[in-house]
Model the fold of this input.
Amino acid sequence: MRVRVDRDLCEAHALCIEIAPEVFDLGDDAVASCEETPPEALWPKVKSAASACPRQAISIVEG
Done:
């Protein structure tokens, strides 16, 4: 699985960073970025962050 942040949808609410700071970061352009293939142990946090995103800018891609 991979995680992606849609830069066009992200509004820098930063909930993802609060939930999974090991995976997500806020860039200088005020848009979240992420580690595309985080360790398996962090996936529960990644899924929580995706669910919490008010703009649904975080997607989890299988494969």
Summary: The chain has one domain: 2-61.
